[in-house]
Design brief:
The complex is a heterodimer.
Chain A lengths: L22 H18 L4 E2 L4 E2 L8 H6 L16 H6 L16 H12 L20 H4 L23 H12 L10 H13 L5 H9 L5 H11 L1 H14 L18 H12 L4 H14 L4 H6 L15 H21 L18 H9 L4 E4 L7 H42 L3 H8 L7 H18 L11 H11 L15 E4 L41 H9 L7 H14 L20 H13 L4 H9 L13 H7 L12 E2 L2 H12 L31 H5 L18 H9 L1 H17 L3 H13 L5 H17 L7 H5 L2 E2 L8 E4 L7 E3 L9 E9 L9 E8 L5 E7 L10 E10 L4 E11 L6 E8 L7 E9 L8 E7 L1 E3 L8 E2 L12 E9 L19 E5 L18 E3 L11 H15 L1 H4 E2 L1
Antiparallel strand pairs in A: 1-2, 3-4, 5-22, 6-7, 7-19, 8-18, 8-21, 9-14, 9-19, 10-11, 10-18, 11-12, 12-13, 12-17, 14-15, 15-16, 19-20
Helix pairs in contact in A: 1-4, 7-8, 7-9, 10-11, 12-20, 14-15, 16-18, 16-19, 17-18, 21-22, 21-23, 25-28, 28-29, 28-32, 29-30, 30-32
Chain B lengths: L5 H11 L5 H8 L18 E7 L13 H6 L29 E4 L4 E4 L3 H4 L5 E8 L5 H10 L9 H9 L9 E5 L24 E2 L18 H21 L4 H23 L7 H6 L8 H15 L4 E6 L11 H25 L6 E6 L3 E7 L3 E5 L3 E7 L6 E3 L1 E2 L6 E3 L2 E2 H11 L9 E3 L2 E3 L15
Parallel strand pairs in B: 1-7, 1-8, 4-12, 4-15, 5-6, 5-7
Antiparallel strand pairs in B: 2-3, 4-11, 8-11, 9-10, 13-14, 16-17
Helix pairs in contact in B: 1-8, 2-8, 7-8, 10-11
Classes of the chains: A alpha+beta, B alpha/beta.
Chain lengths: ~1050, ~475
């Protein structure tokens, strides 16, 4: 049912066949051809009926001639070369028209004869269509393609204007009979400026300092202070990272973490803070490897070429590579050119003079691209130093490593053969060729596919024959003592280079094999780009980057200046920041846009100068309250002419950062690997996992970071309100805010003022203070001290990826794990199961405990289930069950049984151990179960191992979750979700993983859900848990303190906090 | 937002704030994205849609698309005439695997259904079975993404979001687009399967679970008394009203006020909507809720009916969430269990909708992201097959008892009346009164459409 793929163009058209038809030709057309077309084709291909299936119309001659993707539908005089005839003949499997039923032979003949006779169409009129593949002078005059034109600022706005921007704006005010609003007060200005430039609220001290600054340059000084702060780069980076769809994960199925991507994020922050020129910034990201070889930052910058989503198990390597190249092409066009070039991937752009060829000309700059994960983000000197420092370790361990290689080497070979063997045969052939024999394209496909081989290398233990596992583990343990000699690894770059000096040919799909040479949009420059080849690289991306930042380029500076304007006013001078074509709106102030673009270039592409210019203008400083707002709205409801300031809701990250800033919890630590959203770091530094979104950022319209985002939506939904008012984390923020206030301001009336200054950036009025105090009194009476909420409040919940609901977030040294209220636990066989994700394991061999029923004194007794540390005597990062009890031989002692299954950090797992006791006659068994929840292709792994404990491990101490017994030495670090204890050794079909819920064996079931309560045992046996901390958690709430927390929580929910004027 | 009857809350709102109701909805409309009901492009046949998503890819050749030739050639390699196939798991020369099913014609229409689905088979005369579907993704992530959003790449709005954007909802107290799943595993690609993509977030699907808190954060945590919560909301309302008064021309601020009212109306309505305890034992039994094996999905199907009854526009149920239908090995064990758990509940849904007169307005859709190969994998399994597979529809103006299109003799590729995912989506939209080329959202200034400017509704589905 798929029609012709997509076709065509609808611009001015000025050519058509001129000859007058004969009567016979007219009759034939009207009696035979037109009725046939109308009957069989117009249903989907009619300009008049607006049916443009595949963008092809067949109800005008122009439409037929224009055609598109597959060339024109007809070639007058040549039916054999006409696509229309090919289609109706059903000669081509991919092009059978009409799709449902083939025309009769005589009908096909009518069309063929008509075409052979010259395709005479009586009274043909020019339609909206144009000859494909051409550009007119009118196209070149379109505002965004025309050269930047610098007019002197108009002479408007005397007495009001502070700088040139205002003159341009004032001219429009006058023309539209609008008067600008007065200047905003200082409190509004510092709040607006700080959010715009830092993404954070100003502190009370900063507000006071600015309010009291009597210097005539107070505002200018404030702007300089803000621009000089590292917070500036963090805020600007967010905007850029949206554009380049930066994230820390692959974005497909297993959504793997990208461990080195964050260095690109930090590079962007650094670049903004250093006020790196946009020209250099563009060059580094598109072609840092070609233009600045050896420059570490430039190497990291090429991460720009890497942010596409990636599917780790796609065997269609050709298709996947094609998708990646398309993604880079689309993004580059959106980000730098502000053009919807992806519309031209399948057909000439319908509205803009962008040809299909232009899409592939742009793509050709990336034709030789090769994603790289093997580049070190360090200087040559640092790399040499590393080699020197590694030497001792290498020498001392060479013999051991050789033995390890003797086992792992053949396993890798086997793994590689298996991984290669599942690709289509043509891809396998490319992979089996010697590298020298591969074409650049084959090398690219090989490298892409080889990632799947490396994936197997990453789990090499699975490929080692079981007979040699013990030996391998022993050898690895021999390496442990030498660890201290090994220098810390050098940082790696998430980067890209060219595959070599030659590029693979880029062709237009279904348009033959003619290679497309790199070039810019034809409307701007028709001739192909001139490329200076480099050693080992094509030089193509360098050519693109240089062209983009050539001051003569009409788009780059305009697009960027417009984005910065949008940041400050909520709307660009051209409203569609990534579409400067006919589909976008033309700029409201084109002269101002050009003037700013020219200044931007003249200022060395300096962002700080641009921001400074904008925020120093009188236009930026307007208040949001216009005395004649109602009249103004009649003239200009959208405030296009900038006669007042917009009131804007904060963006998602600003909301989160402002919450932590106000509660005093915000850490301003800069850079480094992404952290969990539960850490009070700036949102910029939170890990962006594409498939696991932070709930707060999600509801407040954070983009998906899958394609380039040029602006944020501002929605207002009940789901936002529910999250702000009811979520445990927001309630905790209210408490933290209240605690901060109580710490800083003992006097309650003054405390209210402080709360207002922190949350709203202004003092509380006396009326507000009175109302707030009244609220505190009333609220304190409403609070039921018997309802103990404090233990719940100590609970830190988080979401375990790939699981619903809430998990316990256990942090070393902060949270303590849990202990059971009851102590009636089995002394016989049992199964302990949990869903969990470890954040870290011990640097030593020590075990981190998932669950235990363990007593240390007078002698160790009981059991403990956990994960081994890095220097484990057996195997690092594997499950272990330690049993202390009576043994088969009658003695009392320990059995430590290791699963030997590898546990990776920060991955969600299902872990279980089913323990069957030994008897005098037979050993017992422990069956370990492990399932990587992030990857459905990973099976549920089982390992059944013997032990000699016959029983005798019961005692009176409570069972613990996330810790072992009373001491904190073996606490778990990470997310702990559902834990279930059963009084039997469960089989696979009874496991929690297989079937969630409780069954007849269930003794305790702890799910950490807010309902019925994080500490409630869901098994119905009343084995509730509580935090295992020393202090009693059941203290009644202090009503006054709680009222304060409620007050603070409300402030964080209120509009005045969430909006900036 | 607190735990007292809805009426009291309304009274309080009337006293404390006033000016809600219709006016407030109008204010919400002024912000980005509105859920107010919108006129369809043409007379709809279905008002709501329930999409039963069998995640992982059910085998069409063992359920709805019998292939005698496959049984005949079982054990032999795929004949060379079928050409090359790109396989997800790359078992390139595995022999053909015959179907072990017993096949029978059912109903007056004589539609073929295998013995894995005896209950659904009883509704054969309500089903329009599309046997010639095809898709572009060979892996789950691409396949599920496309079956939801039309594209194998992420970032686009899901079908439910498009429908919500196109039609809005008649019940503002419940989410317009609801997603449920049968277990706690993550559906491949996670929540972006029901995301609004580049459209405002109001159109995204809301995950609903059972119990007192079907929607996350619907209620305050334990330990907060009603009076305490009410006190907070009164204060919040007062602060927000003061602020909105200072900015009279910012309709968004009124919307913010309203969002709290809507939130607590949702708090009243949602638990009622998901409370199946009021259903009779007979109804519960109809959905298989009296049987351990069928109760989970039975409950979700019953919830779907209750939601549709209350005006929810689009309900999606994931059965086998986390690719459970993905039978690379042991197809028999895998599919027989999954079919058993789903057959009765889905049949019960059809019967119940019909008995209540809801089926004519409710489009029920069944299927996965792709089908499975006629070739075996690891002996008794089948690999992914996006080149030919089965989906079915019932209700919502669909003419039942028809099989549409065919696959080749082995069920590998769709051959007659081929129906791309875009065509399938266009057909769903068309039944709901929306033209797939007429439904346009402007993003970055560019017109975006639900089926990426392709696809055509298969109108014969309506008879």
């Amino acid at each position: 049912m798929r029609m012709f793929a997509i076709f065509a163009m609808m611009l001015s058209w000025s050519w058509i066949r001129a000859a007058e038809p004969t009567k016979a030709q007219s009759d034939f057309f009207e009696n035979k051809v037109r009725p046939l077309l109308a009957d069989k084709c117009f249903g989907c291909h009619s300009e008049a009926m607006n049916k443009t299936k595949g963008n092809l119309t067949l109800d005008t001659l122009a439409g037929m001639l224009a055609g598109g993707d597959l060339g024109p539908a007809i070639v007058p005089g040549k039916s054999k070369e006409s696509r229309l005839v090919e289609a109706v003949r059903y000669a081509n499997d991919d092009l059978k028209m009409p799709p449902k039923e083939k025309l009769k032979d005589e009908e096909v003949a009518i069309l063929a004869n008509w075409i052979d006779d010259g395709a005479v169409w009586p009274n043909a009129k020019a339609s909206g269509k144009r000859k494909p593949g051409t550009i007119t002078d009118e196209d070149r005059r379109w505002w965004s393609f025309a050269p930047i034109k610098v007019n002197p600022p108009p002479k408007a706005g005397d007495g009001w204007a502070r700088n040139e921007i205002d003159r341009f704006v004032a001219e429009k005010h006058a023309a539209n009979e609008l008067a600008p609003a007065p200047e905003a007060n200082r409190l509004a200005l510092i709040r607006r400026l700080t959010f715009d430039l830092h993404g954070l609220p100003p502190t009370p001290a900063e507000i006071d300092a600015f309010a009291k600054d009597s210097s005539p340059n107070a505002y200018e000084d404030l702007v300089e202070r803000l621009l000089a702060s590292p917070r500036y780069g963090e805020r600007q980076a967010r905007l850029w990272l949206d554009l380049v769809r930066y994230a820390d994960s692959d974005g497909y199925r297993i959504d793997d973490y990208r461990p080195h991507a964050w260095r690109y994020r930090d590079y962007v922050v650094r670049s903004f803070n250093a006020d790196k020129g946009y020209d250099r910034f563009v060059r580094e990201q598109l072609a840092g490897d070609e233009l600045y070889p050896g420059d570490v930052d430039a190497r990291i910058a090429t991460g720009y070429l890497r942010h596409w989503i990636y599917e780790y198990n796609n065997r269609d390597a050709r298709g996947q590579w094609n998708t990646i190249l398309n993604d880079i092409t689309d993004t580059t066009s959106d980000v730098f050119l502000g053009l919807g070039l992806q519309c031209a991937r399948c057909h000439d752009h319908k509205f803009d003079p962008l040809l299909q060829k232009d899409y592939f000309r742009l793509q050709a700059f990336f034709a030789a691209l090769n994603p790289r994960d093997d580049l070190i983000a360090a200087t040559e000197a640092e790399i040499a130093e590393q080699a020197r420092r590694s030497k001792e370790w290498e020498e001392k361990t060479a013999a051991i490593r050789e033995k390890i290689e003797a086992i792992e080497g053949p396993a890798r070979k086997k793994a590689a053969a298996g991984a290669i063997g599942i690709f289509p045969e043509d891809v396998q052939a490319m992979m089996r060729k010697p590298a020298k024999a591969r074409t650049p394209y084959e090398q690219q496909i090989n490298d892409l596919a080889y990632r799947q081989v490396e994936y197997e290398f990453g789990r090499i233990d699975k490929h080692v024959p079981s007979a040699r596992k013990e030996e391998l583990l022993a050898l690895r343990r021999q390496l442990v003592p030498f660890e201290s000699l090994k220098p810390a690894p050098l940082p790696m770059a998430f980067a890209a280079t060219d595959v070599g000096p030659a590029a693979s040919p880029i062709t237009i799909p279904k348009r033959g094999d003619t290679p497309i040479e790199p070039g810019f949009p034809t409307v701007i420059q028709e001739r192909p780009a001139s490329i200076a080849p480099l050693a080992g690289s094509t030089g193509r991306r360098a050519a693109l980057a240089n062209w983009l930042v050539d001051p003569a380029n009409p788009l780059t500076a305009r697009v960027m200046v417009n984005r910065v304007w949008q940041q400050h006013f909520g709307r660009g001078l051209a409203a569609n920041a990534s579409d400067f074509g006919r589909l976008g709106e033309p700029p409201t102030h084109p002269e101002l846009l050009d003037w700013l673009a020219a200044r931007f270039v003249a200022d060395g592409w300096s962002f700080k100068s641009l921001h400074r210019r904008i925020v120093l203008s009188a236009t930026y400083r307007l208040t949001s309250e216009h005395p004649k707002a109602a009249e103004g709205k009649l003239i200009d409801p959208e405030n296009k002419w900038l006669w007042k300031a917009p009131v804007r809701r904060l963006e998602a990250e600003q909301i989160r950062d402002a919450i932590y800033a106000v509660t005093g919890e915000l850490s301003l630590k800069e850079g480094g690997p992404g952290v969990a959203a539960s850490e009070p770091r700036r949102s910029l530094y939170c890990k962006i996992m594409r498939n696991t979104r932070d709930p707060l950022l999600d509801v407040f319209d954070a983009p998906y970071w899958i394609s380039s985002a040029a602006s944020r939506d501002t929605t207002t939904t009940p789901v936002q309100s529910l999250l702000l008012v009811n979520s445990p984390s927001m309630i905790a923020r209210g408490k933290a805010f209240a605690a901060r206030l109580a710490r800083e301001v003992p006097d309650e009336a003054k405390r209210i003022d402080r709360a207002y200054r922190l949350a709203y950036g202004r003092p509380a009025s006396s009326k507000e203070t009175v109302a707030a105090l009244a609220f505190l009194d009333t609220q304190a009476r409403r609070i039921d001290p018997k309802k103990s909420g404090s233990a719940q409040a100590e609970f830190v919940g988080a979401k375990l990826p790939y699981r619903d609901g809430q998990a316990a977030d256990l942090k070393l040294g902060v949270s303590t794990g849990f202990q059971l209220a009851g102590d009636k636990l089995p002394a016989g066989e049992f199964t302990i199961e949990t869903f969990a994700s470890p954040r870290s394991v011990a640097e030593t061999g020590a075990v981190r405990t998932l669950a235990a029923h363990f007593e240390t004194t007078p002698k160790p007794i009981g059991w403990s289930f956990g994960i081994t540390g890095k220097q484990s005597r057996r195997k690092p990062q594997t499950l272990v069950m330690q049993l202390f009890g009576a043994k088969r031989d009658g003695t009392f002692g320990e059995e430590a049984v290791f699963s030997d299954q590898h546990v990776a950090l920060n991955k969600p797992y299902y872990f279980a151990a089913a323990v069957r006791l030994a008897s005098k006659d037979a050993p017992g068994s422990i069956t370990f179960y492990l399932k990587d929840l992030s990857n459905d292709d990973e099976p549920l792994l089982t390992a059944k191992l013997p032990h000699a404990i016959v029983g005798g491990f019961d005692h009176k101490q409570p069972m613990t979750l996330g810790r072992r017994g009373a001491s904190a030495g073996a606490d778990f670090d990470g997310l702990l979700d559902d834990v279930r204890l059963s009084g039997a050794a469960l089989g696979v079909d009874e496991l929690l993983f297989t079937r969630e819920g409780i069954n007849k064996h269930t003794l305790g079931y702890w799910q950490f859900e807010p309902k019925p309560g994080a500490f409630v045992d869901g098994s119905g046996h009343g084995l509730d848990i509580r935090p295992a901390a020393a202090k009693p958690m059941t203290a009644p709430r202090d009503a006054r303190q709680t009222a304060w927390a409620d007050f603070c929580h409300v402030l964080l929910n209120s509009s005045e906090f969430l909006y900036v004027e | 937002m607190w735990n007292s009857p809805a009426r009291t809350r309304r009274e309080w709102l009337a006293a404390a704030g006033g000016g809600f109701g219709a006016l407030a909805l109008a204010a919400l409309d002024a912000t980005a994205g509105s859920l107010a009901p919108r006129k369809p492009h043409f007379a709809p046949k279905a008002k709501s849609c329930i999409f039963l998503f069998m995640e992982g890819g059910p085998s069409h050749i063992d359920t709805f698309d019998p292939k005698p030739e496959l049984d005949r050639l079982a054990g032999q390699p795929l004949p060379a005439s079928f050409g090359k196939v790109i396989l997800a798991m790359g078992e390139n020369h595995a022999p053909l695997l015959g179907s072990r099913r017993q096949w029978k014609r059912h109903g007056q229409s004589g539609l073929w259904v295998s013995d894995w689905l005896p209950e659904i088979a009883k509704h054969a005369d309500d089903l329009a079975v599309f046997r010639s579907c095809y898709a572009d993704g060979i892996n789950h992530s691409a396949g599920v993404c496309q079956m939801n959003t039309g594209s194998i790449l992420g970032g686009r709005p899901s079908l439910g979001a498009w429908v919500t954007y196109g039609l809005g909802t008649v019940n503002q107290d419940l989410p317009a687009f609801v997603v449920m799943q049968d277990n706690q595993s993550t559906v491949v690609n996670g929540p972006r399967n029901w995301s609004a993509g580049f459209m405002p977030a109001v159109y995204q699907g809301t995950r609903i679970q059972g119990g007192a808190e079907p929607i996350p954060n619907l209620n305050p945590p334990e330990g907060i008394a009603d009076a305490e919560q009410r006190g907070k909301l009164e204060l919040l309302n007062a602060l927000n009203r003061d602020y909105a008064r200072k900015h009279p021309d910012q309709t968004e601020l009124d919307a913010r006020l309203t969002s709290y009212e809507l939130a607590f109306r949702m708090q009243a309505e949602a638990p009622q909507a998901v409370d199946v305890s009021k259903e009779t034992a007979a109804t519960q039994a109809l959905y298989g809720m009296d049987n351990k094996e069928t109760q989970t999905i039975g409950r979700l199907c019953l919830l779907a009916r209750r939601l549709v009854e209350r005006g929810t526009r689009f309900v999606q149920i994931y059965h086998g969430a986390g690719s459970k239908w993905d039978a690379h090995t042991k197809l028999e064990e895998n599919h027989s269990g999954l079919c058993r758990s789903m057959d009765k509940p889905v049949a019960g849904l059809l019967a119940d909708l019909k008995a209540r007169g809801l089926l004519k307005d409710t489009l029920v859709v069944w299927g996965g992201e792709f089908g499975r190969t006629p070739m075996s994998e690891k002996g008794g399994g089948r690999d992914h097959n996006p080149t030919g597979f089965t989906m079915w529809m019932a209700g919502g103006g669909v003419k039942g008892g028809q099989a549409i299109g065919t696959t080749d003799e082995l069920g590998l590729r769709a051959v007659e009346n081929k129906l791309h995912v875009h065509d399938f989506h266009a057909t769903i939209l068309w039944l709901m009164g929306l033209g797939n080329m007429d439904l346009v959202y402007k993003y970055k200034g560019r017109p975006e459409r639900p089926t990426l400017n392709e696809g055509e509704p298969y109108k014969q589905v309506a008879g």
